[in-house]
Design a protein that fits this description.
Order of helices and strands: HEEEEEEEHEEEEEEEEEEEEEHEEE
Bound molecules: 6-O-phosphono-beta-D-tagatofuranose
Helix content: under 10%
Largest sheet: 9 strands, antiparallel
Shape: globular
Strand content: 35-45%
Amino acid sequence: MNTNQMASCKDLAIPGVFAIDDTGELIKASITTKLCTAEFYLQGAHLTHWQPHNHKPVLFLSDRSAFAPGKAIRGGVPIIFPWFGARTATSQSNRTDGPAHGFARTADWQLLSATMTDELLTVKLTLVANETSRALGFEHFQLLYTITFGRELSLELTVENSSQTPLCFAEAFHTYLFVQDAAQVKLEGLKGCYYYDKTDGFQRKLQEQSELQLSGETDRPYVDTAAAINLHDPRLNRRITVSKTNSSTTVIWNPWAELTGKMADMSADSWKQMVCVETANAFENSITLAPGEKHTMSACISVE
Ligand code: TA6
């Protein structure tokens, strides 16, 4: 970010509510309202903290995460675009190069606005094509990310195809929820849905139980989903609800002990404190936009 861009970004600060800190390696925004506290980084438009008053933090953030240019932050809400996981061929392109989960989570986003309405703070960020995305074949698109901070957290991602050809993409809010003990939480809202079991050769399986309780490494994109997910955390005595619109994929992920041991940005026991409940459009639910078309996916997180 050049000095002019930094100055205009700082112009958006709201005294006592919305502050921009450019003293670290990454530019960080901090939020304090009557209803919550929160933090995000401009790199990746990456939300790392949200805590409604009188609750514990709702998002998990790894104490070993990198906070460095070009490196993905571990925890919070990474934005996944334009492919999910490793890049695979699409109807548009047979390219398979590029970083896991796409380039949006490590790109520098631009802060457009920060406005208070009643007690809600709404922040808008945008990402357009840059050198990295162009080198990967994404030359004309616009992402608009709207985050509303209140007693609930509302996330909205609009993708616009500004090219002359169809734009095919996957997307996700790769949300890491903070839990007291991953082995004890129960997830509700997936009964009757099919998922690909990434821990079992990508086999397609049916979720038969109404409650999912994790007992080992879990990596499951559920497809054709619409329902909200309720995460019951008996140890924290709370329920987190993730509801969504225009999202047909829900991914549930926990690396458990062995895989966590191989991850440089997670401490040994930290898998116990997280469960990813991801609002997505991926695999057969990926989106294709005609030239000029837009698509908006949203998620709303609440806690009781
Ligand atoms: O959403 C689940 C997943 O795709 C897993 O397969 C797992 O590897 C995870 O995301 C984390 O990916 P990352 O690239 O952040 O290490």
